[in-house]
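On to my pick:
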Amino acid sequence: MAEEKVPLFVAHGNLVSLPETFNYIGVFLSFRCPYSCSYCINRFGETAKLQRRELSAHKWIDFFSRLSCRDVPVTLQGGEPGMHRDFIEIVKETAKFHHVDILTNLAFDLEEFTRKIDPSAINRDAPYAPIRVSYHPEQFHLDDIIRKVKYLMDAGFRVGVYGVMHPLQITAINHAKTVCADLGIDFRTKPFLGKYYGTVYGDFAYSDACSSEKRKRCECAPSELLIAPDGFAYPCHHNLYNGVDHVGHVDDQTISFSDEFRPCSYYGHCNPCDVKVKNNRFQQFGHVSVRIRSVS
């Protein structure tokens, strides 16, 4: 298990604790992205509301200074987190008191990043790289992503590349994996989640949760903290992307999070990220982000 970081300065408000069962903290700094992948999981379904205001670095850092999350990393993601105007400042300050992971397509100033961020603040002993780069063949050339990844690696950062096994790009992804292996770059694949020609792809714990048919009621218990660019927190990706049923805001000095079952009326329209069977943060397969019961 990774060593827990100790905050380097005293929080200005009440401490925020996570339930012991929580496995993931996803902080979506921005829903903006310079690319437009046809299979973008953020746009699964037809009601995603991705135009959100973005909190300042001060707001995020104040919240992170109050957040007690054991050894669970704070994962900065999007969209493309690097499009946030204060991205590098947020990374630098957050890494002082939490483990930080970054999910990115490297659409930010790499020279400034390597100049202002010490690799030792990000790197740690974990079964995956803390900087995880998405490779999307339909959006950019492999040579471009390799050049950027090598730049970060040469600066001392641990970086991994991930490709989605979409039916149309399996050949390109396998080629990229071979090329990266020859260059000493950690390249891993992720299953395609979503619909393609009427078929829903993914290994799901609840087979009809993403059917997009008639909505049903259920009770759902989360194991993840997901926070939108505007600071509202959600128990699942469906609610996050659609902007419904938040559980609080990072500005709230009394905010708390629960892993208990709560009523939900969106079963059947779940986001695949919430119900797929996947690895936990220790890379142990079999984890599911939510528990669902009492479907009716």
Observations:
- The first helix runs from residue 57 to 66.
- DSSP finds eight helices and 18 strands in the chain.
- The chain has one domain: 21-203+225-260.
